[in-house]
Automatic annotation (TrEMBL):
<feature type="domain" description="2Fe-2S ferredoxin-type">
    <location>
        <begin position="3"/>
        <end position="88"/>
    </location>
</feature>
<dbReference type="Pfam" id="PF00941">
    <property type="entry name" value="FAD_binding_5"/>
</dbReference>
<dbReference type="InterPro" id="IPR036318">
    <property type="entry name" value="FAD-bd_PCMH-like_sf"/>
</dbReference>
<dbReference type="InterPro" id="IPR016167">
    <property type="entry name" value="FAD-bd_PCMH_sub1"/>
</dbReference>
<dbReference type="InterPro" id="IPR014307">
    <property type="entry name" value="Xanthine_DH_ssu"/>
</dbReference>
<dbReference type="InterPro" id="IPR016208">
    <property type="entry name" value="Ald_Oxase/xanthine_DH-like"/>
</dbReference>
<keyword id="KW-0285">Flavoprotein</keyword>
<dbReference type="InterPro" id="IPR036884">
    <property type="entry name" value="2Fe-2S-bd_dom_sf"/>
</dbReference>
<dbReference type="InterPro" id="IPR016166">
    <property type="entry name" value="FAD-bd_PCMH"/>
</dbReference>
<keyword id="KW-0560">Oxidoreductase</keyword>
<dbReference type="InterPro" id="IPR012175">
    <property type="entry name" value="Xanth_DH_ssu_bac"/>
</dbReference>
<dbReference type="Pfam" id="PF03450">
    <property type="entry name" value="CO_deh_flav_C"/>
</dbReference>
<dbReference type="Pfam" id="PF00111">
    <property type="entry name" value="Fer2"/>
</dbReference>
<dbReference type="InterPro" id="IPR002346">
    <property type="entry name" value="Mopterin_DH_FAD-bd"/>
</dbReference>
<keyword id="KW-0408">Iron</keyword>
<dbReference type="InterPro" id="IPR016169">
    <property type="entry name" value="FAD-bd_PCMH_sub2"/>
</dbReference>
<dbReference type="InterPro" id="IPR036683">
    <property type="entry name" value="CO_DH_flav_C_dom_sf"/>
</dbReference>
């Protein structure tokens, strides 16, 4: 494997050796390059002050996406382009159109958060020209400001969408694509630094071989959780294996009645496809995190992490999704709900990794809904996440699957509640009886996000909410977001 990190910055290929595997892009920029426009606010991918833009080739075109530099490890830039706020100025030192719009709308006060907003708006300018207020709010949800009240910043973003300006990055796109194309066929990356190692294989077979030889390695996808191990817990990771360069893990397809999703597919990449089949799931993805986190976090990583408050597993479990696990020994398919054994323990054997998820497509005359309860509406960790899948026959419950996150040590189905409903009329009386049965399925805990009583009451009421939405669709029960089509 190759020992030199290679990425594009300012129109040139940068080559680096002796790279710390877990050095963040933020620290590289600020402490090694003196590019201090990128700020550290939270160091956990929450505030957006550190936002930079990463460019890469996707299906032959150049794609720009905003990411959080504070939790992005420097070696993950391999084969990509890095753009910071300092890079936006014109050759004569003039402001970028996004910066001009911010000035015109008085969109900055103390200025600390401003570079992050500018980079998010820059990425949006190169991917969309949608001036809709809801869309703009969603794009900027990962950038926090304590001064302006957001109004002027939103107006600046809408101005950019309406004006559709072109910049030097448009003009240089052919040259940038040529540079990135030169990096595409590089072999996988293997860095050694101070007794620690970083691997970035290019195939699933190579990944299986590396994990077979390094079974204690930390598997890295979007770094949305692993990044915090370094920035918050100050952990030193001896061996990191990055899966983001494996093309096989970044594919999606529909075949034989199911959606196949590679473990390396990000939320942003999966969002539209999943929402086209399950609109409510699309709204859940919108609320999982900010644009920056959706651009790097993966559905496979959310599953493999095994968190009891991961948002996608409840929805995937009620839809009867299955996992494909792989190792040097071969493949193994299991139902997703069997993957979660107990808190902190998953059915993942030594040297094994999550390779692919299979999600059945919607069945006729079934109803699926999912709900997220959190302190903040946008980009917050769930206190409770619920999912329901229902089929009726002459208004009797022919089949029902109910799963919650945040109610136990793993994402867990409410099997006694399901049994209480099965074969019953789909009625308020039956639902209220089942709500009482739910106390036999769960004994939730109290923590900083919610008390055990709040969790139980919320879980019970979400079942009632699902009943109302399936029987009285004209009742407004939702704050409808961009991702939701079911209740618009």
């Amino acid at each position: 494997m190759r020992q030199t990190l290679r990425f594009v910055h300012r129109g040139e290929i940068v080559e680096m050796e002796d790279v710390d595997p877990t050095k963040t892009v933020l620290n590289f920029l600020r402490y090694e390059q003196a590019l201090t426009g990128t700020k550290e606010g939270c160091a956990e991918g929450d505030c957006g002050a550190c936002s930079v833009v990463v460019g890469e080739i996707v299906e032959g075109d150049l794609r720009y996406q905003a990411v959080n530099a504070c939790i992005q490890f420097l070696p993950t830039l391999d084969g990509k382009e890095l753009i910071t706020v300092e890079d936006l100025k014109s050759e004569d030192g003039g402001l970028h159109p996004v910066q001009e719009a911010m000035v015109a709308r008085h969109g900055t006060q103390c200025g600390f958060c401003t570079p992050g907003f500018v980079m998010s708006m820059f990425a949006e300018m190169h991917s969309s020209d949608n001036p809709d207020r809801g869309h703009i709010d969603n794009v900027l949800a990962g950038n926090l400001c304590r001064c302006t009240g957001y109004g002027p910043i939103i107006q600046a973003a809408q101005d950019i969408a309406a004006d559709k300006p072109r910049d030097k990055f448009h003009e240089q796109s052919t040259a940038t694509l040529e540079l990135l194309a030169r990096l595409e066929n590089d072999p996988g990356l293997h860095l050694s630094f101070d007794g620690r190692q970083y691997f970035a294989p290019k195939t699933s077979a190579d990944l299986a071989e590396i994990l077979g030889k390094n079974p204690e390695a930390t598997i890295l996808a979007g770094a949305t959780d692993v990044g915090l191990w370094v920035t918050k817990l100050h952990r030193e990771l001896a061996t990191v294996v990055y899966v983001g360069q494996i093309a096989e893990l970044k594919t999606m397809s529909v075949d034989e009645g199911e959606l196949s999703i590679g473990a390396g597919v990000t939320y942003s990449e999966a969002w539209a496809t999943i929402a086209s089949h399950y609109p409510d799931f699309g709204e859940l993805i919108r609320r999982i995190a900010s644009t920056q986190i959706r651009n790097t976090g993966t559905i496979g990583g959310n599953i493999a992490n095994g968190s009891p408050i991961g948002d996608t597993p409840p929805a995937l479990i009620v839809l009867n999704a299955r996992l494909r696990l792989r190792s040097a020994e071969g493949f193994r398919d299991i139902p997703l709900e069997d993957f979660f054994i107990e808190y902190g323990k998953q059915d993942l054997r030594t040297g094994e990794f999550v390779e692919r998820l299979f999600l059945p497509l919607p069945e006729k005359d079934t109803r699926f809904s999912t709900y997220k309860i959190s302190k903040r509406f946008d980009q917050d960790i769930s206190a409770v996440c619920a999912a329901f899948h229902l089929s009726l026959n002459d208004n009797k419950v022919d089949g029902i699957r109910i799963c919650y996150g945040g109610m136990a040590g793993t994402p867990l189905r409410a099997k006694k509640t399901e049994a209480a409903l099965l074969g019953q009329d789909w009625s308020l009386d039956a639902v209220e009886r089942a709500m009482r049965t739910m106390t036999e399925d769960y004994q939730p805990m109290s923590d900083m996000r919610a008390s055990k009583d709040y969790r139980m009451m919320s879980a019970q009421n979400l079942l009632k909410k699902f009943f109302i939405e399936t029987t009285a669709p004209d009742v407004n029960t939702r704050i409808v977001g961009e991702g939701s089509l079911a209740y618009a």
